[in-house]
Amino acid sequence: MALPVVLLRTANLAGQRPRLFQTDAATEAPDIRSASFIDIPDNGAMERFSIADPSGYKDYTIAAVAFLLQNSKLEHTDYLEQSSLVGDWRAVSFIDRRPLLDYLTDPKATLKLAGGAPSVALATGAGSVSAGASQKAGADAGDHRETAKRPLEDEGEDALAFMDEAIKRRKIEANDPDYLFVLGCMKRERTLNDRRKVICIQGSKNFSNVLKLGQEFFGPKAQQKTAASESQPSKATAQASHPKPGSTAKVDPRRPQHSAAPPRQYPTASKLQSRNKGPAGGEDKMPIIIVPSSRTAMLNLYNVKEFLGSSPKFVLSDELIAKGMSKPDSVIITRSSVNRPGVPENFLVVDAPERFTQEQWDRVVAVFAIGQDWQFKNWKLGGGRPDSIFRAVRGFCLKYKDDQLKDGLKIWNIHPLVIDRNRRHQDTQAVVDFWKIVDEHLSNIPRLMTA
Description:
This protein is about 35% helix and about 10% strand. The N and C termini lie far apart (about 80 Å). It has helices at about 5-15, 60-70, 75-85, 95-105, 130-135, 145-150, 155-175, 175-190, 210-220, 220-230, 235-240, 270-275, 305-310, 315-320, 360, 385-390, 405-410, 425-440, 445-450, and strands at about 20, 35-40, 45-50, 290, 330-335, 345-350, 365-370, 395-400, 415-420.
């Protein structure tokens, strides 16, 4: 009888799928999590194994090999995560993954199997299995030959020899002194930090006094005191401008006379909050971000506020449109300024800059590109040439990590913002990278920082 890994390879190259069965050995299992047995096609018949049986390659079980073959397109980290959730078998390691997948999918590949079993390349590939065998392999479970119903111990001396060798090898590895030493070290390990605690501030320093100072100088009471001091002249100024009745103060004619200087005024918090707004809270002083006007672009006016806002999360624009959202003419994103801590900073987001004045172009700090030249048609900035545009402003593109970067974006001065298709908690890192680059760019443009 051939090794299970060899049978899995032959069936896979022939386009045949093994069948999974539950504990009663008669009911088919929907997935490997609920399966106890596996039937693998073998020359027109079906060989039955327990999914916990050795596969014939190192000390991996049949379940581990079958699960790897079923999820061969997953990244290795995702495969390890899914494997730990599905079963308690040892997952295929990163070193063994590539040789094993090549052996299972390539008829010319070879592999060193357990127990000294030979590994022969299949010269005829998938064609080595006849059409009649395929039909018989796909027949009803009741058509299994008698050997498929017998326990594994009765399959033959070659199977018993392989099983004995695998069991001996596994026992030797478990009793290896080096293995036991490492196991003892692991038991004595203690967790110092985890992914939740590592972001918490630990130590003896206490920064609570900073909040008190902030309230003292910038809180509501501080604003009232500042307003009162601005509206009332100082005591010395009042005495100089309104002398007491009957006062006979002498004036020295030799000394020049000066009028009392007005008290120095300091901007209040409300004034600081509107420093980057125009008259009556307008938009003529805000830094500008340009996004694509295409509805199919990953980032546009529909979803830019959700992505770049205070709680970053990428939402498909189609989902927002399906909820009844209409396209806005522009979007204002407010965030805390890095260059001026504690002061809100507004950014104007638009997608149609064709009629911009030179003053508006001077306020553009970032452009999201989709890799097509027509996006920059009729732009005054850089003459509408992408290479000139992205020398003047910071260029970005939003992409999934498993997508290829478009050719146009590779030759422009573009910074890719990479996100995962499903893990929304990772969007924050891409947004942090975006604002870091924008803040560095703004620090070199004082007229926008003090607008």
